[in-house]
Amino acid sequence: MRTRSSAGDLGSVAVFVAGTYGDLVDRDEAVARLREARIGRLATVTPEGRPHVVPFVFALVERGSEVRAYWAVDRKPKRTTDLARIRNLEGNAVVEFVVDGYAEDWTQLWWVRCSGSARVIADEAELLLLAVRRGNQRRGIGKLLLDRFSANAKLRGAGRLHLEVREGNHAVKLYEDSGFTLVGRRRNYYSGPDGRCYDALTLAKIVGEVE
Questions:
Q1: Gap between the Cα atoms of 65 and 59, Å rounded
Q2: Domains of the chain, each with CATH number or no CATH
Q3: Is the distance from CB of 8 to CB of 95 less than 8 angstroms?
Q4: Residues involved in catalysis
């Protein structure tokens, strides 16, 4: 059985609300508590519009202010891998999850709620960061790294590659020349050094069989 996973994108659409006995904390502290958490409660939406809540284990990936949570349907014994939460996400990308801490002293209680969108990743690989030192740019190193990523991902069974890049970034041409095509866009997602807002472009490339 191949591993399937889900990626919850909690970037600019995240709502972090944390409490310590009713007192709000800032986003940085909320994210810090997320990093320390080992388990949460994930809510997806059923076709009937009802919440479906399950405990889950997750891993965080952070890029600047963007935070993503990943969780997997792994090889542990299960009655089925056709889980309700996966079916729910395929029909409705809205997702929320909560992590919390309990203590007999109520002044030590806390919780963090995350809201965002999610997608199911099956036989896919995602490029989170590709960077070349400024003094070594324009020497083909970026293309070499991208080709190595594509080859390794295919070798590990990935059929589709994904990445996200700011519109106007010079790397867009590198990705397009390597066979990536535009499959999505998030309006005004990035803030540039010039104060303008730029769209986030989601690019994909087929490298093998896709389920």
A1: 16
A2: 4-122 (2.30.110.10), 124-206 (3.40.630.30)
A3: yes
A4: 164, 175
